[in-house]
């Protein structure tokens, strides 16, 4: 998934100065961002004051959108370095193409995991024949220094482990580990991503790691997370220090995505679709994309690639997790 803003702001993140070492409730309001030709997303991370949750550094939520008779998601070829992208759907389908030759349709509750590593380009689109609704989340994971120049790759996993606990509670492990269940997706840092479904009236207590920081994005319904009401399309940052997380569906069924991980110690620079360590590295990636070097070619997408926006006039420097 791309950041298609014409003038993206540089984001400095990483380091542990801004990590809440004790449990907190910090509601993160979304901001609406156009994506491609016809999709508008709610961007929750990075936000003002909160840049990362573990290695998770980017969270977009979209839908449910009625795309009957519409093109749906249309994101032309664009580049990435230094990160992994996670495609996660509750409704609809997304056709993924990339410069290492992958061609795969990702469907609800299937993991589409792309490791950009040193450089990759890809496109995402709703298939020509698609269902009425499109609803999902697009997530980025920052790669640690020892793996950020890895060979690019794409993984698709349709069968993911499921954790159950009591009546009306079910958690699909997207990435990392949760309550002894491990996703088949390749992870490079201690991390967890889980899709949690709660039936009406469900009241659950989910085991979590006290050394991880967590956030919860409500996908559907109203959910109480540790007593905090979180409406659909909103996210609550929870900090560290918990051994269990109380969850309750309010007024009907609810669904959320839980994101967590060991606080990411390295300081990063994130601009447009690139995660690096220095402004010079980001500028070189932009030049390479503009010159047609390094990122390869996406075959089969009907349209030109996304041009790189201009770099900001101020130097890009890594300074930490929060402003």
UniProtKB/TrEMBL annotation:
InterPro entries reported in the protein's UniProt record: Pirin (IPR012093), Pirin_C_dom (IPR008778), Pirin_N_dom (IPR003829), RmlC-like_jellyroll (IPR014710), RmlC_Cupin_sf (IPR011051)
Signal peptide start-end: none
Family: Belongs to the pirin family.
Residue ranges of domain Pirin C-terminal in the record: 194-294
Protein's name according to its UniProt entry: Pirin family protein
Domain Pirin N-terminal: 45-141
Annotated region described as Disordered, given as residue ranges: 293-323
Pfam families (UniProt xref): Pirin, Pirin_C
Organism: Actinomadura rugatobispora
PANTHER family from the UniProt entry: PIRIN (PTHR13903:SF8), PIRIN-RELATED (PTHR13903)
Biased composition (Pro residues): 304-313
